Amino acid sequence: xxxxxxxxxxxxxxxxxxxxxxxxxxxxxxxxxxxxxxxxxxxxxxxxxxxxxxxxxxxxxxxxxxxxxxxxxxxxxxxxxxxxxxxxxxxxxxxxxxxxxxxxxxxxxxxxxxxxxxxxxxxxxxxxxxxxxxxxxxxxxxxxxxxxxxxxxxxxxxxxxxxxxxxxxxxxxxxxxxxxxxxxxxxxxxxxxxxxxxxxxxxxxxxxxxxxxxxxxxxxxxxxxxxxxxxxxxxxxxxxxxxxxxxxxxxxxxxxxx
Length: 258
Known about the structure:
Layout: H1 2-37, E1 40-54, E2 62-69, E3 74-83, E4 88-116, E5 121-148, E6 153-166, E7 169-180, E8 187-196, E9 204-215, E10 220-229, E11 246-257
Antiparallel strand pairs: 1-3, 1-11, 2-4, 3-4, 4-5, 4-8, 5-6, 5-7, 6-9, 7-8, 9-10, 10-11
């Protein structure tokens, strides 16, 4: 008797869970259908950024890029698209992303503020090698116009706006010398020193984004985007670096379309 009651209880629980799951799926499908009828489509994107935070064009002070490592830079995005007609639409998204790199360069008369290994502060013009590490985390909002080239291909373009959640711009200078304060100042040989400009990074970033996507299946697409920062990553009153530095990254990944 107890066995029958136990089996009956288990079956009732299974039936209840299945019914709730089916109902939730039906509600979800109804919601997606209603949104589609109103020209709204939703997607979730996941990918990685490859690029650099760099001055453009490269200044004469940077003589040689000796090494480059894109590092691991992930992005996750949710967006909604409103179709105005079969060809044109507008996409608004919310993206959490990392933009980072590591570089090793040889420079000459490179404006620099740094600390020696013994803690002494140095300002002037550096000639030698510079290693730089950038790792910035942004919350970004792209606002894009999109155009359907065909049933599978789509192109998008528009501005994006970013807020810096966490940022790092640091590195080291080694095997060179610094001219104190001015290019003709006292020459000081330096084997190794380090710098950290993370506190000088701007909180707000804006730029342009262009991209394309290819629908591989009904709910899955592959995309490639290019984001190009318009304002420098550093505050306007920051003088240790004498030229603008901009984030330029390609974002590659997959999107699930609801």
